[in-house]
Amino acid sequence: MENKKIFALMSYLPFLCLIPLFKEKEDDFVHFHAKQGFILFIVEIIGVIFFFSLYLLFYEIPILKYIFFNFFFSLFLLSLLIVMVVGMYFVLKGEKGEILWIGKISRNLKI
């Protein structure tokens, strides 16, 4: 059981989510959390690309660069951290808890 929890916890760490996603396909608990972690990872990548493009767009205007990149990017990262901690909490409790809209998307994901 502990090996399952370690793989399920890895699901919520960026880049490491790919290991349990493809290695533990037969374990329903781990695969459930791996799919949620994969969706979270995709959201992280899209968010970083989005905020970096805003940074490049507003590079010449310091106040907008500060507002859009520093403030909103920090809020984005903080919200992702909270979602990761909630997912890890469900893993440690041994539950298959869906995380808001991520769980709904991962339910329809066929990997």
Write the layout of secondary structure elements.
Elements (H helix, E strand, L loop, with lengths): L1 H9 L7 H6 L4 H30 L4 H32 L6 H8 L4
- Distance between the terminal alpha carbons, to the nearest Å? 23 Å
Number of spatially distinct domains: 1
Number of strands: 0
Give the rounded overall mean pLDDT.
88
How many whole angstroms does the radius of gyration measure? 16 Å
Provide the structure class.
mainly alpha
Strand content: under 5%
Report helical residue fraction. over 70%
Largest sheet: none
Sum up the overall morphology in one term: elongated
Order of helices and strands: HHHHH
Low-confidence segments, ≥5 residues, pLDDT <50? none
How many individual helices?
5
Give a verbal description of the structure.
This protein is mainly α and 111 residues long. It has one domain. The chain has 5 helices and no strands. α1 runs parallel beside α3 and α3 packs antiparallel against α4. The model has no long low-confidence stretch (mean pLDDT 88).
Give a short summary of the structure.
It is built from 5 helices and no strands. It has 111 residues and is mostly helical. It has one domain.
Keywords:
mainly alpha; 111 residues; 77% helix
